[in-house]
Amino acid sequence: MEPHLPKNQPGARRVDDQRVISGIIHMLKCGGRWADCPSEYGPSKTVYNGWNRWSRRGIWTGILVALTEEGWLAETGQIDSSYVEAPRFAGGAKGGRGPMPLGARRGPNDRKRPVQYDERRYKDRWRVETMFCRLKDFRRVATRYDKLARNFLSAVSLAAAVAFWL
């Protein structure tokens, strides 16, 4: 990550970037207010300003692009909605209303044309589904707390980078 972070910034002396980035990742995971960032990551305003400033400059998406240039994500991406799946946390809470229908589920015999099994495409599809599953572990991404689209894109980019490469 370090080669992608800005250097020689004007203004006050820089704080430890690693500590600020750890605070940003913590806030992505827990999804709380930036003001509630634990003090071991530094002042919450410093953590938020680092997040917002680097998001504005496209640092987070640049890191994801740099990590995926040689990987499978640059080759292909596909999402197939041939069935409806519940997320991992959809088991229901204690005392809930019970099971709820999730929608029509199509089986393999319900296709208009048969699909041939391709091991490479199957593995690529599994990677895409795994990526969405891992992104849901980051509460700030799963619930889209950010107001700005660029900050949300940055949150998705950083969460993907953390989930798969770091």
Automatic annotation (TrEMBL):
Residues annotated as domain Insertion element IS402-like: 1-63
Pfam families: DDE_Tnp_1_2, DUF4096
Transposase DDE domain: residues covered: 110-163
Protein name, per record: Transposase
Annotated organism of origin: Altererythrobacter rubellus
